[in-house]
Amino acid sequence: MKIKAVRCVYFSPTGTTKTIAENITQGISPESVEMIDITKRQQRNSQILSGKDDVVILAAPVYYGRVPEEIIPYLTSLNAERTPVVLVAVYGNRAFEDSLKELHDIAVDAKMIPVAGGAFVAEHSYSSKTCPIALNRPDESDIRKAQEFGVAIRKKLQNVKSLEDLTAFTIPGQFPYIEPVNLNMIKKARSVVALTPETDISKCTQCGQCADVCPTGAISSDDVTQTDRWQCLICFACVKICPEDARQMNEPNFQSAIQALQQNCQDRKEPEIFL
Ligand SMILES: Cc1cc2nc3c(=O)[nH]c(=O)nc-3n(C[C@H](O)[C@H](O)[C@H](O)COP(=O)(O)O)c2cc1C
Fold first, then answer.
1. What is the 3-state secondary structure of 170-228?
2. What angle is formed at CA 29 by the lines to CA 68 and CA 46, rounded to 5 degrees?
3. 127, 240 in Cβ contact below 8 A?
């Protein structure tokens, strides 16, 4: 099979999923590439992805062992019947649990044809200088593995005449998918505490980058100290982009949870590919 174009659909609030997806795409080395950034709500419009000799990549970070709830309505509305698809989950060195399987099942329900899956490791959204978790990943080795994965996808597709000839592969994970226990807890707790990053006004210069980068528009661009708790995904895009380190999550229980996470995620995990 020929590969003309790669259409890469990615959700990436802090940018690591995008980096992995770009490197997989580079490894596939198609004639043309369309990067479809669905990080922000207003970007999620075109749902038609199919084209002759196209490959679709669906790439998402792992949230609570699952595909982020935020993008499921968009993903389930995709129209890419009989298009080969590569599933990519990027996680913060804890675990990817059922995320890759969920992404795979969404693709199959949309009648796409899975070709391969990969779980890659990146710096955790909640990592910081004082509490590093998989700091600076993806590193050189991760990037090389992402590119090699792309090359392997290309070979797998080139070696068959039609999609029917593709060899089956197994994606790890279970159905019913793991309950997002922490997400459920956060949703409940929000009637009492905001559980959003806050702005330290003594450091903030009102540059507005936090409001610009927020996937859901939860931060008011008129007054960046105002964050809508019901819209905030706690993705930490605002925390990571702030040039003054003025955005922080001050809630003590959340801070201790991050410290516990750091303690439990110290052993380096490696990318896993399923072909
Ligand atoms: C709300 C939330 C939940 C997360 N859940 C997990 C998880 O279950 N397992 C894990 O290893 N990393 C988890 N992470 C870390 C992200 O998967 C990881 O940092 C990823 O690289 C972020 O992708 P991005 O840079 O494209 O935003 C979570 C991050 C956030 C913000």
1. CCCCCCCCCCCHHHHHHHHHCCCCCCCCEECCCCCCCCCHHHHHCCCCCECCCCCCCEC
2. 40
3. no
Q: Which two tokens stand for residue 105?
A: 């099942």
State in Å: Cα 90 to ligand 1 middle: 7
Distance, CA 13 to ligand 1 centroid (Å)? 10
Q: Enter the tokens of residue 82.
A: 């009989």
Which position has the token pair 């949309």? Answer: 110
List, in sequence order, every residue forming a beta bridge with 54; answer none if it has no partner.
5
pLDDT score, position 171: 96
pTM to 2 decimals? 0.98
Domains of the chain: 5-177+268-274 (3.40.50.360), 181-264 (3.30.70.20)
93 lines ligand 1 (CB under 6 A): yes
pLDDT of residue 49: 77
